[in-house]
């Protein structure tokens, strides 16, 4: 189960770079808007990815643990009678960086296509629970940059998830929140990564 073997460095920014063309194909208006604001109020997305990728490589190694590899809600089966949870689609299961599963699960909650206020509140609470667990796991693994590690994964997941979302307004919110996270992280210096904290309020606003 990984023992003291270090996990391979996260590749959230490489994944974002690989998938961004599919986002532009689904939502070309995002690409147009990014081209309009690049160099004015924001750096270009490519500049942000490049800066964030350098910082991602500066994250301290973390111990490898068992990971699902694609821990989204579609791959979690819950039996209400027995309380049993079953994980399916295990073809990507391996040992690696825990932040991949944690950030994927949080994004999976957030992109759920149910917009009733009570449901969104439950989603926000579920994301809080995952964040709390990730922080405890990070402490257990002596990871002093757990929030930054999650932040890179969330930025990647929020932006790339929009290629599956047809509602333009909901996709816009996910894209903008991912972009906001990416911009926050890309401005950091490597030595600031352990001090950066994920603002949970980012996920409490209603889409």
Short recap of the structure:
With 207 residues, the protein is mainly alpha-helical. It has one domain (12-63, 98-203).
* Spatial sequence of strands, sheet with the most strands: 1-4
Categorize the overall geometry: globular
Uncertain runs: none
Largest sheet: 2 strands, antiparallel
Q: Note the total helix count.
A: 7
Taking all residues together, what is the mean pLDDT?
A: 89
How do the helices and strands follow one another from N- to C-terminus? Answer: HHHEEEEHHHH
Class per helix and strand makeup: mainly alpha
Count of discrete structural domains = 1
Specify the helix fraction band. Answer: 40-55%
Number of strands: 4
- What is Rg? 17 Å
- C-alpha end-to-end distance: 38 Å
Report strand %.
Answer: 5-15%
Please describe the structure with a list of short key phrases separated by commas or semicolons.
207 residues, mainly alpha, two-stranded antiparallel sheet, 7 helices, 54% helix, globular
Walkthrough of the structure:
The protein is mainly alpha-helical. It has one domain. It is 54% helix and 7% strand. The protein contains 7 helices and 4 strands. The strands form 2 sheets. Strands 1-4 form a two-stranded antiparallel ribbon. A two-stranded antiparallel ribbon has the order 2-3. A hairpin with a 4-residue loop joins strand 2 (76-79) and strand 3. Helix 4 (98-110) packs across helix 6 (146-161). The model has no long low-confidence stretch (mean pLDDT 89).
């Amino acid at each position: 189960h990984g023992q003291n073997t270090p996990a391979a460095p996260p590749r959230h920014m490489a994944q974002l770079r690989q998938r961004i063309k599919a986002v532009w194909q689904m939502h070309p208006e995002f690409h147009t808007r990014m081209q309009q604001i690049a160099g004015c109020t924001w750096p270009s997305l490519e500049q942000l990815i490049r800066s964030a990728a350098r910082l991602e490589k500066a994250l301290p190694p973390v111990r490898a643990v068992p990971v699902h590899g694609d821990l989204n809600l579609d791959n979690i089966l819950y039996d209400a009678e027995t309380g049993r949870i079953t994980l399916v689609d295990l073809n990507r299961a391996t040992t690696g960086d825990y932040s991949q599963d944690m950030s994927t699960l949080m994004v999976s909650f957030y992109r759920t296509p149910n917009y009733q206020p009570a449901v969104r509140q439950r989603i926000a609470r579920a994301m809080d629970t995952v964040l709390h667990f990730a922080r405890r796991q990070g402490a257990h693994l002596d990871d002093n940059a757990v929030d930054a590690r999650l932040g890179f994964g969330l930025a990647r997941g929020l932006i790339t998830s929009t290629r599956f979302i047809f509602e333009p307004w909901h996709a816009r919110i996910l894209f903008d929140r991912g972009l906001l996270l990416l911009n926050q992280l890309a401005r950091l210096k490597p030595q600031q990564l352990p001090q950066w904290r994920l603002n949970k309020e980012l996920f409490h606003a209603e889409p």
